[in-house]
């Protein structure tokens, strides 16, 4: 029984969106489930996928909150 947790920052993939859409989440669930079926022969009905959305203030990279890290990496 595979259990997959996907962690993403809570922000949209398009302008004005504040989170992943229901359609995007459904595509992630389908894609991960099908990958486990195709690679490890795990039945779709036994695969659990959890999507955990994390506020960007609670996500860090390179020793910084992710928003600050992104600002540092942005071209000037």
From TrEMBL:
Gene3D superfamilies linked to this entry: Macrophage Migration Inhibitory Factor (3.30.429.10)
Transmembrane segments: none
EC identifiers of the protein: 5.3.2.-
Entry keywords, A to Z: Isomerase
A Pfam entry, by short name: Tautomerase
Keyword Isomerase: yes
Record carries keyword Isomerase: yes
Domain of life: Bacteria
GO terms of molecular function: isomerase activity
Chain ranges of the 4-oxalocrotonate tautomerase-like domain: 2-66
Positions annotated as active site in the UniProt record: 2 (proton acceptor)
Protein family membership: Belongs to the 4-oxalocrotonate tautomerase family.
UniProt cross-references to PANTHER family, sorted A to Z: 2-HYDROXYMUCONATE TAUTOMERASE, TAUTOMERASE-RELATED
NCBIfam families the record matches: taut
Identification of the protein by name: Tautomerase
Organism for this UniProt entry: Micromonospora violae
